[in-house]
Amino acid sequence: MGCAVLPYLRELVEIVSKGLTDDQQKVKTMTALTVAALAEAAYPYGVESFDPIIRPLWKGALGHHGKMLAAFLKAVGFVIPLMEENYASHYTRIVMPILLREFHSPDEEMKKIVLKVIKQCVSTAGVEPEYIRKEILPEFFKNFWIRRMALDRRNYNQVVETTVELANKVGCSDIVSRIVDDLKDDSEPYRRMVMETVQQVLENLGSGDIDERLEERLIDGILYAFQEQAVDASLTGSNAFGKEGQVMLDGFGTVVNALGERCKPYLKQIAGTIKWRLNNKAPSVRMQAADLIGRIAVVMKACGEDQLMGHLGVVLYEYLGEEYPEVLGSILGALRAIVNVIGMTKMTPPISDLLPRLTPILRNRHEKVQENCIDLVGRVADRGAEFVSAKEWMRICFELLEMLKAHRKSIRRAAVSTFGYIAKAIGPQDVLHTLLNNLKVQDRQMRVCTTVAIAIVAETCGPFTVLPAVMNEYRVPELNIQNGVLKALSFMFEYIGDMAKDYIYAVSPLLEDALMDRDPVHRQTGCATVKHLSLGVVGLGCEDVLIHLLNYVWPNVFEESPHVIQATLDAIQGLIVALGPNIVLSYCYQGLYHPARKVREAYWKVYNLLYIYASDALVSGYPTYQGQLKEDDTSSEENCYVRTTMELFI
Hints:
Blueprint: H1 9-17, H2 25-42, H3 51-63, H4 66-79, H5 85-102, H6 108-123, H7 129-144, H8 153-170, H9 172-179, H10 188-205, H11 212-227, H12 242-259, H13 267-278, H14 283-302, H15 306-318, H16 325-342, H17 351-361, H18 367-383, H19 390-403, H20 409-426, H21 428-438, H22 444-461, H23 467-473, H24 479-496, H25 504-515, H26 520-536, H27 543-553, H28 562-579, H29 581-592, H30 597-614, E1 628-629, E2 637-638, H31 645-649
Antiparallel strand pairs: 1-2
Helix pairs in contact: 1-2, 2-4, 3-4, 4-6, 5-6, 6-8, 7-8, 8-9, 8-10, 10-12, 11-12, 12-14, 13-14, 14-15, 14-16, 15-16, 16-18, 17-18, 17-19, 18-20, 19-20, 19-21, 20-21, 20-22, 21-22, 22-24, 23-24, 24-26, 25-26, 25-27, 26-28, 27-28, 28-29, 29-30
């Protein structure tokens, strides 16, 4: 329910309030848990509803032990965040001695509740940082930052969350300085808990108050923790590390990015560690090292370490023969990160050597390899196409065609945008020839992606470079090719917007043919093209040709197929925007009161669209009925519906 409980909150609290002072222990426990649930649902409102129970709640927390105390503390933890600052501070100080006492409790459930309550108390505005530093931190770290807490996942998460909340209150360096040396602890789960906490604290607060000595200890600690990860060499890829390895990787990346330019003295040491691990026999270690390069490339650029990045680029280039696809995907991702920050001209190895090595990798069927490889090729095509011969680009075009039928949408999207970059680099003709040939294949998904690629080429190189060849292809008497051409035109007009005004007269004969075709898919795709075309030329003086196209679209309102009727209504909506609602309304009149029900339904559907879109604009288009004189009375008129221009104006 959440905040929906607020209207009934006072009554609900009054109903259960007597239970806090009941004789039965179970009743007290359940009442306290009920109060906790109500306070959680009402957050951050409704503190006044809890007024009757605050005194018995705190009294109970001070007087009980064991499971009952746990329930009372849980309720206290949820009520305190609802209070105003000064009250929250006062009540936190009252309950804090109990929490500090329960730090020593051997009961696991009690520890979880104590951690949760500490987090809730600390997050309220009234609690002073100085009070936390003196009263809470020493005992908290002594009792909760121990190896045993890292072994149980729930305890682990609660300790991390509470520590991060404490850091938000007292600052980054107070917390990090207490746990940084534990990055060198013998227990790996404990090191992981420290790393995750450091990562979240630095993400939230940055590294502004970390001094030079703490910075050295931090880098030393993360390097040790990163190198000392246990790994099962028999497992491959991400399975060997799983979430644990991801924690170390994220933590290392976050620390380096938070320190920024202050990392400059340590980068050579970090790069040495990465190179050493790239040579490890365990695939997961190599993968993690490559992923780390991708995380810290931006910092290396900020520190002016172009030479070091160039060296890492050469090392990664040498590892492009990697046999495990997950590792190869990470190596390609690292190369892409380096290319992004170092630029095309300074890249080593040179782009002219790198790209021919990538062409055969495009045939790899692993999704991670495909995605990273296409991203890298697309980046080169966008920024450094002149470093590679046109022949090589054409070779890549042929490889990219296979990517258009990949299962993952991001791969198809990257392949399509790369076609646009390549067309911009070497001119649209050769690329277009390849794509038009691709319209002949049977695979529908491949044809659809090809039409999107044609539209992208038209957008990047100008529609005039593409339209003649595409329209000429429509003459081939084959359904797939003609539908592909229409779909390409539809996507093209969607992308180019108001540029369509220069080409609308050229394509209208083709659209006439499509809208008259016996094949419903022709008419459906033709209607989709008309929709995008009409929305692109709104207000640009193309009304004559749009009315002409409307005459061809209109008969399709009686279609039975749901796809065709939807496309037809979309086209009519586009024409309503471009031509104004009254022209389409005049087409509607003839069928609104037709004797056949099916005709009426189709026309009323269009009229409803008009009414929803522009009911006010329709007023001027409604017909005027001239009044008729009664036979017996020449002075009065019956059913006289007259509306003059003056009336409309007023």
